[in-house]
Design brief:
The complex is a heterodimer. Chain A is built from eleven helices and ten strands. Chain A is of the alpha/beta class. In chain A, the strands form two sheets. Chain A has a seven-stranded parallel sheet. Chain A has a three-stranded mixed sheet with strand order 2-3-5. By secondary structure, chain B is of the alpha/beta class. Chain B contains eleven helices and eleven strands. In chain B, the strands form three sheets. In chain B, strands 5-7-8-9-10-11 form a six-stranded parallel sheet. Chain B has a three-stranded mixed sheet with strand order 1-4-6. In chain B, helix 9 links the parallel strand 9 and strand 10. The longest helix of chain B has 22 residues. Classes of the chains: A alpha/beta, B alpha/beta. At the A-B interface, helix 1, strand 2, strand 3 and helix 11 of A face strand 2 and strand 6 of B.
């Protein structure tokens, strides 16, 4: 079985050492007007380079930029759009983290490229292609307060898809081999799967040679596993930590899409072992289209930095041991 | 039903009792003292003296404002999870994780068997109750939230960790009851985050509260209640303290479709805004509460803890709650 080691999305931007906290200090200095925009951007670039190198050192073969610049999963994009303002804090799914809720008051329009700019800087720093990650149009729409411009979640999701399609096209042009669209909200609103399907068709139009990946996490994907296989995507990321029956479901039903196996728990510090990972790989292995990805269940920013790195190192050890054992 | 329980416990409260969720703003001298204590520049005894001074200030302030059920203001606590994790056996301090924006906190890790270390809140409850004749709530963080907001390297699963915490927290509740506390709030803000685990939270709360002679309140905020209502009413407490104003009172429609069967501490001021609401806005929120709930079931308070507000804002928000309650009582033709 060929398993590519991938990061899923975010990476902790600070750690417990003073050097690892320079971005935190920079945010404070920026807010107090003590740090200029250019110096702040330079530091974000440095920390991005640092976290990409940390992922590579831990053995990750398809790293991300760590989402160092993202204020949170929704407002980073929203702040770059006309027709949207950013409101108060709301809990981000079942995490003990919070995001600022976009408020849509008019027609959405981009102020300029966002993710491709970040991508080019990070890929240049890494000296290799990365996985690009976007929050998807359905989750953006579901997490927004709709006050104007559109009449329904459906219409708003398609509007977000239209602006994100531009980002996808630019990322493909920038050389991103995988463009991942994060849609955790769909697992909690399964009846809206058709809306997500329509939105993904819009995104896929601009993907060029890149592979379009759909990432689901923070809830059980088994109830819509078969439906997810029908979407216009090349790769499907699944969070195994919420789905005790997912391995069996894949083993029984197979997979028409390539899968990203989110077997490394991004929400808890306990390290994975052969006993927790190998039985699932045995269950799904025969049915996987290869190469598959092995990845954290979600973004790693929910963990302390040292544990996040430890998880990635454990992921490499487990992959190597599994492939070695079965060779 | 719950009024009868309060009466049985010897607590006589007016119609539309007023209270608060738990935390208040720390005065500047205490913020500074806590920082100095963290740098080992102030002894524990010196810090405690200042915490007592701040607690007494808030007791007098609550009395002067006219609240019916008081709290200690949590002058001795930082974070609602870290406080208990720092005292209970089985926890270690974890590394920094992000809360939002540029805010980070040390998320605890369960590394061994959870152990109650002896009373964690009882001493402060006793000190505070000794300062006033009005009833003071005992307040602790619930087992499900302590589990959900910690990492776990020890227990085989989330239910096992939650129940282990519940067994030890029950000892704290028993100690509060033994000390004479009759209104006990068990905070469970994480309650609604995983609807599929509601039964675990209910099971854990049974372990904490069953057969104990107290009026139990739970505080929950930022919830996705649409996924757990009305099943959540099976949680074994007498009173739900819910954030209502921050979410535009959208829960009222939920209660219209399925009656709320417990007492409800209805949040009528938004704690996340520096702005003091206009009195008429708060009165309107009270009216909305009374449009879907029998008057006997309704308590009034802020949405959530007030520790992120200034001292002046905190007092101002509390005053709005009390004034709205008095106005509502007058319109109902009662004086208390």
């Amino acid at each position: 079985m060929e398993l590519i080691l991938a990061n899923t999305g975010s990476y902790p931007r600070i750690g417990d050492t003073p050097a690892q906290q320079r971005l935190r200090r920079a945010y404070q200095e920026r807010e107090q007007g003590q740090l200029g925009a250019e110096a702040f951007t330079r530091l974000q670039d440095e920390v991005t380079e640092e976290v990409v190198r940390e992922q590579l050192a831990a053995g990750v073969e398809l790293p991300t930029d760590g989402q160092i610049r993202w204020a949170d999963g929704l407002s980073y994009l929203a702040a770059n759009l006309n027709g949207v303002s950013v409101n108060g804090l709301l809990r981000f799914f079942d995490t003990n983290t919070y995001f600022r809720q976009p408020v849509v008051t008019g027609r959405l329009a981009r102020r300029g490229p966002l993710f491709s700019r970040d991508y080019r800087q990070a890929a240049r720093a890494a000296g290799r292609p990365l996985k690009a990650v976007l929050t998807g149009p359905y989750t953006m729409a579901r997490g927004s307060i709709l006050e104007g411009g559109y009449r329904s979640i459906h219409a708003l999701a398609l509007a977000y898809a239209a602006v994100l399609a531009q980002e996808v096209a630019e990322l493909a042009e920038a050389g991103a081999p995988v463009i991942q669209v994060d849609e955790p909200a769909i697992l909690r609103h399964r009846a809206d799967l058709a809306i997500l399907g329509e939105a993904l068709v819009v995104l896929a139009r601009g993907k060029g040679a890149a592979r379009l990946s759909l990432a689901t996490y923070f809830a059980d994907a088994v109830p819509i596993y078969d439906d997810l296989q029908e979407l216009t995507i090349d790769l499907l990321h699944l969070d195994f930590t919420y789905s005790p029956a997912l391995g069996r479901a894949i083993g029984e039903r197979g997979a028409s899409k390539a899968l990203s196996l989110g077997l490394i728990d991004a929400r808890n510090t306990r390290m994975e072992t052969r006993e927790t990972v190998f039985p699932v790989l045995d269950q799904v292995g025969r049915r996987l289209r290869t190469p598959a990805h092995l990845a954290p269940s979600a973004g790693l920013e929910y963990l302390p930095r040292d544990r996040a790195r430890g998880k990635l190192e454990a992921m490499r050890r487990l992959r190597d041991a599994y492939v070695g054992d079965r060779r | 039903m719950s009024r009868a329980k309060l009466a049985h416990l010897g607590i006589d409260l007016p119609l539309l009792p007023t209270t608060s969720v738990g935390s208040f703003a720390k005065p500047d001298y205490l913020v500074e003292a806590r920082a100095r204590h963290a740098r080992n520049e102030l002894t524990q005894a010196e810090l405690e003296r200042l915490e007592e001074r701040a607690t007494e200030f808030w007791v007098r302030e609550q009395e002067e404002i006219g609240l019916d059920v008081l709290v200690d203001g949590e002058m001795y606590r930082g974070d609602m999870v870290a406080y208990f994790a720092s005292l209970m056996g089985g926890f270690a301090q974890g590394g920094l994780v992000r809360s939002y924006g540029n805010r980070y906190y040390h998320k605890p890790i369960i590394v061994g068997e959870i152990k109650w270390p002896g009373p964690m809140t009882v001493g402060w409850w006793k000190k505070t109750q000794a300062m006033t004749r009005r009833p003071v709530k005992g307040i602790l963080t619930g087992a499900y939230t302590l589990m959900d907001w910690s990492f776990d390297d020890h227990y085989p699963g989330r239910r096992a960790a939650a129940l282990a915490l519940a067994r030890e927290l029950r000892k704290e509740v028993e100690a509060l009851v033994e000390a004479g506390c009759k209104i006990i709030q068990v905070d469970e803000p994480a309650l609604s985050v995983r609807p599929e685990e509601l039964s675990v939270a209910i099971e854990a709360m049974h372990v904490v509260t069953d057969r104990l002679p107290a009026y139990f309140v739970t505080h929950v905020c930022y919830g996705a209640f649409e996924f757990i209502y009305p099943a959540m009413l099976d949680l074994p407490v007498d009173n739900w303290d819910l954030e209502m104003s921050n979410s535009g009172l959208d829960l009222v429609d939920l209660f219209r479709r399925h009656p709320f069967t417990k007492d409800l501490s209805f949040g009528v001021v938004d704690v996340h805004s520096h702005v003091l609401e206009e009195p008429d806005v708060v009165k309107e929120r009270v009216a909305r509460a009374l449009s879907v709930l029998p008057t006997e079931q309704v308590w009034l308070d802020p949405d959530c803890g007030l520790k992120t507000r200034t001292v002046g804002e905190t007092s101002g928000k509390l005053r709005l709650v009390v004034e709205a309650a008095r106005a509502a009582r007058r319109s109902l033709g009662v004086t208390r």
